[in-house]
Amino acid sequence: MHLFIHIISIVLSCIIIWKASDGFEAASSYIGRNLKDGVRGATINAIGSSMPELFTTFWFLFAMHDKDGFAGGIGTTAGSAIFNGMIIPAIVILAVLGYGLAKRVTVSKKVICRDGLSLIFAELILIFVIKGTSLSWWHGLILMAVYGMYVVTMLSSMSEVGDDDGIREDEDKQTQHSIVKSLLTLDLKSVFIRNGINNTNAWTLLIVTMLVIGGSCALLVYACEGFAMGLGIHTYFVAVVLASAATSVPDTILSYRDAMNGDYDDAVGNALGSNIFDVCFALGFPLFIYTIIYGPISMSPDTVDNITELRVILLVSTIVAFVIYVFGDGMGRVKAYLLLLIYVLFTLFIASKAYGAEWAIEFGNFMRELIPE
Q1: Is the pLDDT assigned to residue 41 strictly greater than 70?
Q2: What CATH number belongs to 2-369?
Q3: With contact defined as beta carbons under 8 Å apart, do 279 and 126 qualify?
């Protein structure tokens, strides 16, 4: 019975995150309306759709504290990065081909190389910065600095674009729902944007949706912890699969919408940009704040082993995905199925490791040995 309640809580938090992120995405898209395609997907859209990862990491750290909280946080961000890199592009490809919008999904090689190489660099920093059994504020500061460098580089390389107040004009034409109905359905966009979007109501919507997302992420963390206890496994393993998938729902929907509109650069750029945000800021900022308040985090050997192998798997899977993206003329069903297979194998490994399967332990040991001491 308790497991069922926790499953319902996870599903409920997932729905709330999804609905609230709709409003967040509308507000952030308006605020970033002067950014060109590709840049907007990798910055504004990526940050907006990655708020759940940031809040979930915060709740894991401040609710569970110290090593368990950090393990849950890095499990969520790294697991979400793997989900974004594999599942989202696969869904985009299969949806575009399934609806007959194109024969192949073609993404700018410049966008893939720019965001893909930036992500690989960020993951290398994560591997070589988050080492040892103790973490302090400067670890989080370094991760945040890497994301800051990425954003500055993106903005400095952006060509001038005109002020487009008419971006997504269909989003400015709100249907006249009652406020009560909009609140009950979590249609926050209709509550705050009723007569056209502007800077004032866009920022108001942004702040309110952030608060709603934060509350739903607290429910998600509580449910994951209870679900893990019911299964008799560490919360880290549930965070890597379930929490990461739940917080990746906004990324998936946003990329799907971009793909349906033919914005393939933004669809993939959002997924990769979200990963950079997850790996650097969504993990670095909570780590920085927590250690400033409570001091360094001390981790057990088991925790160190788990997060070390996870970071290596993240890097290896990203490199493999990058090769899949880059080589060949566009992306078709074969590439989509390869990406899905990688994620299925990853999930199988995490589930097997949670229950101490010998092959999973040996594979984890092999992954850790790839990092030089």
Answers
A1: no
A2: 1.20.1420.30
A3: yes
One-character DSSP codes across 186-219: T-HHHHH-SS---HHHHHHHHHHHHHHHHHHHHH
209: tokens are: 């949706």
d(CA 206, CA 278): 19
Number of H helices, E strands in the chain: 19, 2
Q: Is the pLDDT of residue 176 over 60?
A: no
In DSSP notation, 55-122 reads HHHHHHHHHH-HHHHHHHHHHHHHHHHHHHHHHHHHHHHHHHHHTTS-SSB---HHHHHHHHHHHHHH
**pTM attached to this predicted model:** 0.85
pLDDT in tens, 3-22: 889 999 999 998 898 888 78
Q: Where are the domains of the chain?
A: 2-369
Task: Mark residue 106 as left, alpha or beta (left: phi above 0; alpha: psi -120 to 50; beta: remaining).
Answer: beta
b or e along 57-82 (b: 16 or more beta carbons within 10 Å of the residue's beta carbon)?
bbbbbbebebbbbbbbbbbbbbbbbb
- pLDDT at site 67: 66
